[in-house]
Structure formats: structure tokens, C-alpha cells
Design a protein that fits this description.
mainly beta; eleven-stranded mixed β-sheet; 60 strands
Length: about 800
């Protein structure tokens, strides 16, 4: 009995207003008004009227208010909008935006099913009676007209917020009331950010802090939120450069090299001209280009020019609502009237843009030609729209040069501090103390209280830097390099334990697995390749970038940029993001190459590019000789400390006749024979091998299974004899960049090598280790040159004890 009583009480509460967010129906005798608020994914957005239907708002001035009236059956209701005296209906029951509409009267309105969501006491689904499984939803997100979506969707949850009637809000700035607004209804729970504010202000506080039941008087105190830092007076000024007609220069990149129309004071006639100027790091800043703003957002700002001095402000002699008055010139003047300009938002959506206008004037400051079709004759006039021609933007006087110099200050590393062969050097910054001079000038030009002279000194240096940068080297398609991480001082290379991933390793400065080449891709970008495999796309946060084959759809497309010797590689093939830069994530020692952001300071997203001229291959001793095999994605023009051999099968297919060669083309199997521990191979060009060559290989690890193992003969030693043998069941794979023979080409399960009529002895046994000169790593992934007997290591992706 107690449980039943409780449930009845709960159901009663949902229609009596016992809980916040619930509703009580209205009739001819009683009236209960509510704001309807989303408490799902669009939490805090109220329903507002927008044209023939509804949209979303968070502002008190726009909220629509409703009464709920009983319908024809239990759980059915009419919704009456007191904001426009119409009933709420719907034009269809499809899951789409814009289907919640108005009806002029109750007779033509459709009814609604308003039901508590399961387990909730104040969250409702508001559904058409004849489609109870769908409900109100801003289909496509806030900003779309109210429509229907499934009631299980998180954005389909609504509450009914009660109201305070006949409320007054006093708007104050600097303790002075500047406006007062009366509201027929205010939703309980509204906060300061919902209250009205002037352009370029925010509500700093509200008393009481929220709209509460029983309180009808509220005070909102405003604080300025300006697009510039205002000045106390001329003598303590914050100076700015200012452009106008910003739609001519684009919204995104103020350093794009396009021309700006810069406010410039002309002392001869006290005029303000707007010459076209390319603003960049070489632009000389003058006093007549610098402006400051004294005043406040309520009373307006007096606009001073640094060259004009403290006695002159910008003034418009005539104001009005017609061209004769509104379109008069604004000039610098000593007359102290018509000179307090208020701020207004631009209608063009230009980033950081704003407009100026005097009280009582319908015309905004605007730039127009003094002489028809002469774009260099532009001066300040008036226009009755806050469009792009009236839009201003301000920039710190040091912005253009500081933005460019910052990269050199933060990123440039001298060649002498990098491995031999680093490219991208700026010849000017490499000379003497020029880099140190740039750094000291940058520090001065960006310090608090910097001077125009300091900015211009840095600009002069940047001219020399830019001239040298035009001749700096960068990566070229078809050439070979190594990427040296700017943070961890290690080389990018293929991971020893996973041939489809990359890492960094300090010992890989001569390894095959660290040689990177670039192939042309679309739009001036590159395919980046290592060991013949292509860098893949950036796929997500901390997800390793994989190496792909030529036929993969997951290949990356990398844009290369550099500041002198410091490079970035940005992948455009992934979902373009600020985290698409090639990056080595060493968190936890993982060393994964992933996609991440580049923030203009040395980090693992920055790399130095080192010319790759040669590789070293470890040799394995057998008898009085040392051996290795290779299959490389680049050509070898010469070999030192060993001799390279290719081989053709004899007639009986029982041996390979080895032929010495001084060079080897790319993707060609060969064997190295010498007496040193390492062979050094120079990367270059090579003629095609004459005759046939039975040795082949792969740039990927070739996994071996019981079904495929007999398909290959791998280079190795068995019972003291060098040859190619069938790998045993203990060999998991053939390493990348090693030679092998396709077993189908030979007569048996092993094959001898014939070096000038000296044939290596073989037998038909399989070999357990294959070629044992693969790099050895400890369990943390560091390469080991001298393994300790009894130690546990990784070789060819497999754990072993030496």
C-alpha cells in the first residue's frame, strides 16, 4: 500500500509543479506560464520564436513562453505560446527539422503527448500524439529549426521552467544605470549571461545571482569586452595599427601578403588616408600609422594618432541620416566635439572586426575613394551599413614582424649543432652572431613597453633572413634523407618489432630503416617513404601511423614546411586537424610516431632533415669471411669494405653463379662478402643488372607459416656452409630488406653459391635462424651492438638469449 501511495504522489507531482521543471495545466480560471528548456545535449538552450517555427536561445530577451492546456485524453495537451498568442502545432511527423509550427487557434492546432522520461521526475519527451516515439529536437543541432527526432536521443529531453512575472532588470556600467528593461516573464534560473548587455560588454555580475521565485527586481553590472586595450590617456597609450575595408584582405590570414587599407594620418591637411599596404615582417612602422582609444564603451572613444599628438582627435564635423551629412570626411582636429565614437559589430562576420559610429549619426566610418577608380586615394568617409567597407581591425605594431621572427627565435637550430648533412640552413643566420642578434632583437621587440625603433630594427634583420631563406634547401622528390627529431635527438626509423610502424632511435643514423624518400603527390604535397613503404594517414590521438603498401588507400599526403633547419610534415589525407603533424610520442617510452599539433616551439612535432648518403649493413662471420644479404628500396652506387654479388641460377638449378658488381639497382637482391664487421653502401644510381638475377626480396617483413615456408630459400649458414636454405618452423618471418630466393626456381630445398668456380658446400637441411645479422635490441627497444652472453634480446621481432 505504501508503494502505491508513493507512486500516486509522484505522478501527481508531475502535473502540480511540486518539482522544478514540471508543469501545471492552465484553464480559463488559472494561468501557469513556463519557458521550455532543453536539458539534453543542448542543455541550457530555451525555445524561442524564429519565423514560422522555433529555434534556440540563451538570452532572456528572446525566450518564448508557453501555457499547457488539457487535451482530449489523459496525457494529451495543447501548447499555447503567450509570446505571440498562437498555438503550437506540427506540419508532419517525419524526423526532420522545422516541422514544429504555429496554428492560429486551438481548433486548428494539433495536440501533444507530454510524458516523463523513464525514471525521471522533470525531464519530458514532447511528442506528436500520433507519433509518440519521436519528440521535440533541434535536428542537426542548435541553430536548426525545432523538429522531431527519436525520444531516446539525448537532445530530446525538456523541462518546464516556471517564471517570475513583471520583473525589472537594471543595467549598470561603472555603477551608473544606463538602461532598464521590463519583462512580462523571466524564467526562474536565468543567470547573468542571459541578461541584456551593450555591444562589447559582458555581464560581470547579477544581483540576485539568478532569477528566483518571488523576486522581481534585478541588477546586472557590465564589464567591457573590447577588441582592443583602451588607453588611459595619450601619454599612457596602447598603440595599434588599424586597417579598414577588411573584406578586401580576407578573414583568416592577416599575414597573407595581401594589401591592407591602413589608417594613416597626413599632417599636411589633417586627413586620414587609407593607403594600400602589404603588411608583413619587412614593413616599416611609422608614428602616423599608430592609433589609440581613450574612453569607454558607453560614452564612446576618442581616437588619437601618435604623430598628430595629444591635442588632436578624430572628428566628423557633420552627422545625420542623409548622404550630405553622413558622408562627410573624418579628420584629425583640435575641436572637441563629434569625436566620441562608439563601437558596433560588423555585419560581415570578419574575425576581430568592428565598426565606429557617432551617436545621432546613421553613418559608420567607412573608406571611400577621393578620386574615382584611384584606390590609393582612399580616405575616411561615411556609409550607412556596418559592412566590410566599414569594418576595422587593430594589430599590435609589432605583430607582423613578431609573428615571423617568433618562428626563427623558437625553432632555428644552427647546422653546427645538428648531424652532418642537415638541410634548410639560412645562410644569414649561420654567419657569426646573427642568430643571437635576431633573438635579442626579438626579445626587445616583444617585451612590455617595446618601441617603434625596436620593432623596425627587428624588421631590418628579417629582411636579411628572408633574402637568405629564398635560397635555402628543402626536401626534393626522389632524394634520400633521414628525419632527426628536434626534441628527442633520435632518427625516425622502422620499428624493429613491428615492420608496419615507426619509432625513433639514436643509433639509426646509418641504418637502412631510417632512409626516407619523398615522392610527388597532389597539390605540391609528398608521399613519404621508408624501406619502400609509404607513411600512412594520421588516424587519431596517440594512434600509431602505419606504413602502407603502394596499393593502399590509407597513404598519407604530407605538406612540408620549414623554418630554416627545422621542418614539419602535415598530413592532408587524414581528417584535417591541428593534430595532423608527424610527431614522435615518447610518453612512457613508447616512441610511437603519431599525428599531433605543432605550436611554434621545439617539440616532438618538429624534425631536422639530414641528407642520407650511405647506409651500413652488419656482416656475419663465417670462416675467414663475413657475409650479409640485402634488398634495398634505393640504388647503391658503390660498396666499401665488402663486395656485392648478384647471382644467376646454373643450368641444373643447383647453384647460383655469383657475379661481383660495384653498384646495385633498387629492389634487387644481392649478397655482400667481405672481412669487416660492416659494409658501407653509398646511395646513388646504378645500371640495370646484366643477365638474370635469382635473388629477390621484400621491403616488408615476409611472415612465414607452415603452408608458405617451403616457398622461400633464405640466406644463412648451415653446418658451416653459406647458402640459401629452407627456413625451419622456428623462423617466424624473413626480415624486410633481406634477399631470398623463390623456391620454385630451384631444384632442391637448398642452393649453393658459386664464387668464381668456388662452390660453397650445402646440404638439404633447413636452417633455424636464417640470416643472423639482423639488428639486435634490448627489451626497451634500444639497439645493442655488443650483446652480453646470457642476456635477453630481440632480433627479427623475436626474443632470444645470447
Amino acid at each position: 500500500m505504501k508503494k502505491i501511495t508513493f507512486m500516486l504522489a509522484l505522478l501527481t507531482a508531475s502535473t502540480t509543479g511540486a518539482f522544478a521543471g514540471t508543469f501545471t495545466t492552465s484553464d480559463g480560471a488559472t494561468s501557469h506560464v513556463y519557458a521550455i528548456k532543453n536539458v539534453g545535449g543542448a542543455n541550457g538552450n530555451y525555445v524561442c520564436i524564429n519565423g514560422a517555427g522555433f529555434n534556440a536561445t540563451t538570452k532572456a530577451d528572446n525566450i518564448a513562453y508557453f501555457k499547457v492546456e488539457a487535451g482530449d485524453a489523459e496525457g494529451q495537451y495543447y501548447l499555447y505560446c503567450v509570446s505571440n498568442n498562437k498555438y503550437v502545432s506540427y506540419s508532419g511527423t517525419g524526423t526532420s527539422a522545422g516541422v514544429v509550427v504555429f496554428a492560429d487557434n486551438k481548433a486548428s492546432a494539433k495536440q501533444w503527448k507530454i510524458a516523463l522520461e523513464s525514471g525521471q521526475t522533470e525531464k519530458y519527451d514532447i511528442s506528436p500524439v500520433d507519433a509518440p516515439n519521436i519528440g521535440w529536437n533541434w535536428v542537426g543541432g542548435v541553430g536548426h529549426q525545432l523538429g522531431f527526432w527519436g525520444n531516446g536521443d539525448g537532445n530530446s529531453s525538456w523541462t518546464f521552467d516556471a517564471v517570475v512575472e513583471n520583473a525589472t532588470v537594471s543595467i549598470k556600467f561603472n555603477s551608473n544605470e544606463i538602461d532598464s528593461k521590463s519583462y512580462r516573464y523571466l524564467a526562474i534560473g536565468l543567470v547573468k549571461t542571459a541578461m541584456p548587455a551593450l555591444n562589447y560588454t559582458t555581464a560581470a555580475s547579477m544581483v540576485p545571482e539568478t532569477v528566483v521565485e518571488g523576486t522581481t527586481a534585478y541588477t546586472v553590472n557590465l564589464a567591457e569586452n573590447l577588441p582592443f586595450v583602451k588607453s588611459e590617456n595619450f601619454d599612457n597609450a596602447k598603440w595599434y595599427l588599424m586597417d579598414m575595408h577588411s573584406n578586401d584582405t580576407g578573414n583568416d590570414d592577416v599575414n597573407s601578403g595581401r594589401k591592407h587599407y591602413m589608417w594613416t594620418y597626413v599632417a599636411a591637411d589633417q586627413d586620414v588616408t587609407l593607403p594600400q599596404m602589404v603588411m608583413n615582417d619587412e614593413t616599416k612602422i611609422t608614428d602616423n600609422m599608430q592609433w589609440c582609444f581613450v574612453g569607454d564603451v558607453v560614452n564612446g572613444f576618442k581616437i588619437y594618432n601618435k604623430a598628430a599628438g595629444s591635442t588632436m582627435t578624430l572628428r566628423k564635423a557633420s552627422i545625420g541620416n542623409n548622404d550630405a551629412a553622413g558622408n562627410t570626411a573624418s579628420v584629425m582636429s583640435t575641436t572637441d566635439d563629434h569625436n566620441q565614437f562608439k563601437l558596433y559589430p560588423t555585419t560581415e562576420g570578419i574575425a576581430n572586426g568592428f565598426c565606429f559610429k557617432l551617436d545621432g549619426d546613421d553613418y559608420y566610418l567607412n573608406t571611400q575613394q577621393k578620386i574615382k577608380d584611384d584606390w590609393d586615394s582612399k580616405v575616411l568617409r561615411g556609409w550607412n551599413k556596418a559592412d566590410g567597407g566599414s569594418t576595422c581591425r587593430v594589430f599590435a605594431p609589432n605583430k607582423f614582424v613578431a609573428d615571423a621572427a617568433r618562428l626563427y627565435n623558437n625553432l632555428y637550430v644552427k647546422v653546427s649543432e645538428l648531424p652532418a648533412g642537415a638541410i634548410g640552413a639560412n645562410s644569414y643566420l649561420e654567419e657569426g652572431n646573427n642568430l643571437e642578434t635576431l633573438k635579442s632583437q626579438y626579445a626587445a621587440a616583444t617585451a612590455e613597453g617595446y618601441t617603434t625603433e625596436q620593432v623596425n630594427a627587428l624588421s631590418e634583420t628579417m629582411k636579411k633572413v628572408n633574402a637568405a631563406a629564398a635560397n635555402a634547401t628543402t626536401v626534393e622528390a626522389g632524394k634520400y634523407y633521414r628525419l632527426y627529431n628536434a626534441t628527442d635527438k633520435k632518427y625516425l626509423c622502422v620499428r624493429a618489432t613491428n615492420n608496419a610502424q615507426m619509432t625513433t632511435d639514436a643509433s639509426m643514423g646509418k641504418a637502412v630503416s631510417s632512409v626516407v624518400t619523398f615522392a610527388d603527390a597532389e597539390n605540391g604535397r609528398f608521399r613519404m617513404k621508408v624501406e619502400g613503404k609509404t607513411f600512412g594517414k594520421r588516424k587519431g590521438v596517440d594512434v600509431p601511423i602505419t606504413l602502407e603498401g603502394d596499393d593502399s588507400e590509407e597513404k598519407g599526403s604530407y605538406a612540408v614546411a620549414h623554418t630554416g633547419t627545422t621542418f614539419t610534415f602535415y598530413d592532408y589525407a587524414s581528417n584535417v586537424s591541428d593534430r595532423s603533424y608527424l610527431h614522435c610520442n615518447n610518453a612512457g617510452g613508447a616512441g610511437n610516431v603519431v599525428g599531433w599539433e605543432a605550436l611554434g616551439e621545439i617539440s616532438p612535432s618538429y624534425w631536422h632533415v639530414i641528407e642520407a648518403t650511405d647506409v651500413e649493413i652488419d656482416m656475419t662471420a663465417q670462416g675467414d669471411k663475413k657475409y650479409a644479404s640485402a634488398y634495398l628500396p634505393f640504388a647503391v652506387s658503390s660498396v666499401a669494405d665488402a663486395t656485392a654479388y648478384t647471382g644467376a641460377l646454373n643450368t641444373e638449378k643447383t647453384a647460383i653463379d655469383m657475379t661481383a658488381t660495384t653498384s646495385v639497382p633498387a629492389n634487387t637482391g644481392f649478397v655482400l662478402v667481405g672481412t669487416e664487421n660492416k659494409a658501407t653502401l653509398t646511395i646513388g644510381t646504378a645500371d640495370a643488372i646484366s643477365g638474370t638475377n635469382a635473388l629477390t626480396g621484400s621491403n616488408f617483413n615476409t611472415a612465414l607459416t607452415d603452408a608458405t615456408r617451403a616457398n622461400y630459400l633464405v640466406f644463412g649458414v648451415n653446418a658451416g656452409n653459406v647458402g640459401f636454405y629452407t627456413p625451419s618452423s622456428s623462423v617466424p618471418s624473413i626480415p624486410a630488406n633481406k634477399a631470398y630466393i623463390n623456391a620454385s626456381a630451384v631444384a632442391g630445398s637448398a642452393i649453393a653459391l658459386n664464387f668464381g668456380n668456388t662452390v660453397t658446400g650445402i646440404n638439404a637441411a633447413t636452417i633455424n635462424n636464417g640470416e643472423n645479422n639482423a639488428p639486435i635490441y634490448d627489451l626497451s627497444g634500444r639497439r645493442v651492438w655488443a650483446p652480453v652472453k646470457g642476456g635477453l634480446y630481440i632480433q627479427n621481432g623475436k626474443k632470444l638469449v645470447k
